[in-house]
Amino acid sequence: VKTTAADGQTDTHTGMVSEKAAVRDHVVCSNLLAGKDYTVKGTLVRKDTGKPLQNEDGTEVTAQSSFRADKKEMEVDLVFSFSSRLLAGKSVVAFETLYLEQTEVNTHADLNDADQTVSYPSVSTKADIRGKKQAEGTGKTTLTDHITCRNLVPGNTYRLTGHLYKKTDGTVLKENGKEITAEKTFTASAEECVVDMAFTFNSLALGGQSVVVFEDLYQEEVLVASHADLNSADQSVMIMEKKSNPSSGSGTAPRTGDVSAVPLYVLILSAAAVAFLVLCRKRKKTEKR
Length: 289
Fold this sequence. Notes:
The chain is mainly beta. The protein has 2 domains: 2-119, Immunoglobulin-like (Sandwich), CATH 2.60.40.3930; 122-240, Immunoglobulin-like (Sandwich). It has one helix spanning 264-288; strands spanning 2-7, 21-29, 37-46, 62-68, 74-82, 91-100, 103-108, 117-119, 122-128, 134-136, 140-150, 157-166, 174-175, 178-179, 181-187, 193-202, 209-219, 222-227, 236-240. The strands form 5 sheets. Strands 10, 12, 15, 17, 18 and 19 form a 6-stranded mixed sheet that branches. Strands 3, 4, 6, 7 and 8 form a 5-stranded antiparallel sheet that branches.
């Protein structure tokens, strides 16, 4: 028995994280006896635990197909239907057993067989502006999103897209009617890859608000993983109110007679000088008499 498992949507070994997912297992059975009845039974097994994958009701995720051999080699497809929404960052492996009527005659069960494996990617991110989680809203601003993609299939090509959202109301950030987006295509060199995407926007009107980055990962134009959480601190940056420039004065010259514009100590010195002059004049008049 030889098999090749693939995701029902991508038709590759990269699976789609979805409420309704499927794995199609293509099974080639050789050295069969013509005219005999065979059954192929399959079970999906979690690679991280080595235990059968279970549905929410606790039943195992299985599939089977029966056929009558009309030649020595026959091909059948097993289709496993299940929810993969809890499998982000995990992998499943298809195990198969071939039966001749009621007797087991062959099995294919290898947790490390890449051909039998479907991997479900996960996406985690850390957003910042010049390495900080806060930045003053001064105008043109560049936010960098550091994205870690895990459980990829090395050699496969993936596409990341991102959008900016305002945390206050959950709406997408726009400028001149256009959404602020970024996109990057890359070929996975390992199961885990880090990709940076830059978003440039005008932050002047965003003072006092948080901006959150949402990311989507595609493979073969199929959405396979997302990271979208308005409350994620790692995905968020805070735009601070622009600070006003300090001024040495009010910007206008004091009007004539505007005593409030004259410092208090100047008034005190002036009053003292006037009093001194008055006193000196009185003494001179007294001496003349």
